[in-house]
Amino acid sequence: MVRQHISQGRPSIIMSNLQRDIGSESLKISEVIERLRKDEFLIPTFQRDFVWQPENIRKLWDSIFRFYPIGSLLYWKTESYLHTHRKLGGFTFPHDEDTVKKFKEWKYILDGQQRATSLLVSFLGGKGRVEENEEFDYTMYFDATKCKDEFFFAGEYSKRVENTNPNFLVRLRDVPEWGFSFYKEISAVSGFNETIEHNLQQLSKIFTDYKIVVVKIKGVEVNEVCDIFERINQEGKKLHPVDIIVARTYRVEKPAEGMNGFYLRDNLESLREPMVESSNRFKDMDDLNIIQMFALGLRKRDTAKRSAYGITPAALDNLKIADFEGHWEEARKTILNTVKFLSDFRVHGPDMLPYNYLMLALSYYLYGNKTPNRILARQWFWRTAFGVDDFRSSTELYDVCEGFFGRLEKGEKPGILPLVVSRQKLIQASYNYRNALSRSVLTFLASQNPRDFSDPQADVLDNVYLNLSQAPNLHHIYPLNFLKGVNLPANAANPNSLMNICFLRALTNIRIGDKNPLTYFQDFQNIPGFDGMLESHLIPAEFIKRNEFQPSDYGEFLNARADRFAKQLKQSLPDVEVSITD
Q1: Distance of alpha carbon 453 from alpha carbon 457, whole angstroms
Q2: Which residue, 23, 297, 377, 446, has fewest beta-carbon neighbours within 10 Å?
Q3: Which of 124, 60, 52, 53 lies closest to 91, judged by CA?
């Protein structure tokens, strides 16, 4: 059994019992080309279109001619069908999509697509767009009279033939067919010399002796294929698991047969449109999380086939076009409702979620649920966000969805696990936006509707502010440079403690600079709503209104704010047993 952990990004495999088959073979150039031509090697549509310039192709053949290494090709052998390119560089592959779909297994090129396509189109011939030339002919020729720049394209043929005997201008695709009669005839042509003889022999030799290493991977799951693709891709392109799902579920429109096209990317973009229009930062959530929420909806909807649907790569591989076409609209409403549920208590976008699985579980609960218990669901969210010792695997996620939320939807009131909040843990933890506790603390602080120091009527995290900045601006209540200038006790807490952090608008932050809090808060304390503003940040007012700063004040402030934070969290969880400890 493969146990999968759920991370901020895609799921990662802890161990795998798959029977791997990873090996390599050396193929002649003509064998590589023939496998491409016959669709034995396929190029999936998540790969880029053919973008190499003619000069790149010419240099490729020149390197082969000189027996320089050109790198290996890597392909993935699988029983999963992905949508593939049917035309590249003007070359049309022999089979239509319906025929390719009927193969029993497929071999997809992951690395080396540009090289493979270059070999194919220049050897067999194809026409494509190159800059302003809509009909550039990629057919490659060889000038046997030259000691360099031997390779050239069809468009140069007429110019070269003006000064060179056409017998010595060889079309590349003809070379493997040369026999004894060819050498006998060409050696008798006027102008034949040692240079031409050497070049022709060398050209013939590359089709018999030059080998390209082709590496096969089989028995590897989708998420690991994505990692492999990312590591070996020279352009630094990342292959997302959704790229494979999109390619696998693609369908070409065929009006004559009454068949509509399907492209999952269009559905994903349409889902984001209302979030883009409202400047909701959930518009940036990962496509994989959207697909996982969709799959969880199917898991809830079809209990008879529950085991077929889930969030792991293996389960997502079961999704079919019919699933998306039949259930996308209901899932779309659920996902938007989930986004609204989170936004309503100030979770502004996926980057503020302590864990993505919180959103996944909530989407399961809201799917098809007309009367959700939002109060208990919200308490479950906060308890789970701060109870970072459990709920890590896909199995545990399903247990929560079908157990806790299943009972809640039936009208029961299942107990939420107790929570222990440690004040010292809050104080000792340094701010790190990738850290789960940091995200939980910041998200809870955001839920308190923090007000700006200079304008207590202004919401620090309103949509306008969030839309104008890449991320919420964070402020050290006791500025770092201020703390450096005072003689703090040796055992003083870290200046980057989470309990020294709050949200604040950039302009106010600049105005404060490195001042002592007792100084900069004096500029704001006469503004109406000042005390309410402090409360919105869970800042203990007694420390802000002291007459002077003592080195021991910083540690005492952190303790007081941690206590204030813990009590506010407990107050937000009336149905949860919360213990506050040192």
Answers
A1: 9
A2: 23
A3: 124
